[in-house]
Amino acid sequence: MDYLAGIDLGSTSLKAMVYDLNGNARAQASRPTQRFNPDPEHPDWTIWKPEQIWDGVRESLREATTQLDNPARIKGVAVTGMGMDAVPMDRKGHWLYPFISWTCPRTRPQQQWWLKNVGAQKQFAISGNPVWHCNTALRLLWMREHEPAVLEKTAKYLLIEDFVNFMLCGEYATDYSMASNTLLFDQQKRHWSEELLKISGVDPELLCEPQPSGTIIGEVHAEAAKATGLAKGTPVVLGGHDFLCGALPSGAFKPGVVLTVLGTWDIIVSALAKPMLTPEACEMGAWVDSHVARDTWAVMGSAVAGEATEWFRREYGSEEKRKAEAEGGSDWNNLMATAQESPPGANGVLFLPHLCGSTFPIVDPDSMGAFVGLRNTVTRGDMLRSLIEGLNYQFVQILENLKSGLDLPADKIVSVGGGTRNRFAMQNKADMAGLPLEVLPLEEATPLGAALLAGIGVGLYKNEQEAFDQVSRPGEVYEPDLKLNERYRDGYQVFERLYPALKDLNRDIKQTTNKTEGS
């Protein structure tokens, strides 16, 4: 029996997963990802230590390979994980400085410089990116200003997945999906942008040659084989960005399939036949990356989800918590029972889910959440149901914007993530969207996607479709109640008016609050 390995570099854990060709996990292990503060004078600065990343990966691989009768049956390995974080390497292959974590705010001045000298619209038109403080190029600008001696010695600046690939096989390479989040990638040409390199002054020699995901870049060398338990000579294949690797076994590499990854945030992924680098996409806060699937791009966005329900649970769910402690069961189940005591439409209560500002499909960091329609007859159940409905109205708003701004209609919705365990919210989402919603039986979609890319690279699957067909399993399908959908369409028209009605008021509230706190 042949196997494939996927390595997932997450912000909380480093996982090694081994699968058979049907997508069944045959071995697995993980180690925690440790975030460090490098300077007590800057308590909000965060880094990843290269030695801790590599130690966690090799220990996980060694533990996973010991679970197999013959690790040589692993026919390929690929890496996926968080994007943007990178490490400078010297000409001898030694790291010179830690990874600056995507959570570290030190590059905010560089972000402002980029917005002034490149501009949000030009950046999006070339690379498909909003300019975030954590984009890779901004770390290079920071190092040029604050660590010039380190940058002088740097031969290659390796993204975190590319670093692990280098440690496995000794080769420098990156893939299109990882290059997409650097601020330096041209999505049309699928190469480094000469214009952005010139404006930023970034030396292109520091960057790896971008290649398609699923490309073999080398073989596990003797030292890495000894460290990891992988057989010497095992092909190392380019994986890709975590969201897009997770889209592969979810089917979200095909037109019309919308993937929603439900956790603290609702991450939306949908495939594109060509890069849609339009002003409309930029204005809605989307980002357009090269997909890990060949000749495909993806539009993505993120909106608050589980963060809102967790807030309500923490602040207003004490009664359900006490009931669970006294009678057994789950306070979450009790909360959903409370929500279902309220009828569809939540007795006229609406919720604007901008608790952390808004990033997609409305871009306004100053927006704030709101319950509207409160009266002395409103119950906690009404408020909780309106919160869930507000999150799902927001999802419909995303679908509508994808259709109107990118001509990207949704034919099918698939969902993964911890939030899918909320059956009431899933049914409500299907009812509002008016489309079937399939919750996929994928607990670890991201490393499975990397493993599939390894399989494509070594020829065990002909292409993405064959790989998907071989590992796909039917999930639980929530069929929409079309009568409820008609009612919710009317409610959506009112929901659409909430943000414009509250925009100026929220700005004034924020300014007043800031003045009060500063006095």
Q: Can you tag this structure with a few keywords?
A:
six-stranded mixed beta sheet; seven-stranded mixed beta sheet; alpha+beta; 20 helices; 519 residues; 41% helix; Nucleotidyltransferase, domain 5
Could you describe the 3D structure shown?
This protein is α+β, with helices and mostly antiparallel strands. It has a domain at 3-245: Nucleotidyltransferase, domain 5. Helices cover 41% and strands 21% of the residues. A seven-stranded mixed β-sheet has the order 18-19-17-16-22-23-24. β16 and β17 form a beta hairpin. α2 packs across α4 (136-146) and α13 crosses α14. The longest helix has 27 residues, at 380-406. It is globular, with a radius of gyration of 24 Å. The protein starts with a strand and ends with a helix. The model has no long low-confidence stretch (mean pLDDT 96).
* Helical content (DSSP H or I, runs of 4+): 40-55%
CATH topology of the domain at 3-245: Nucleotidyltransferase, domain 5
- What is the total tally of β strands? 24
Backbone shape: globular
Structural class: alpha+beta
Helix count? 20
**What is the annotated CATH architecture of the domain at 3-245?**
2-Layer Sandwich
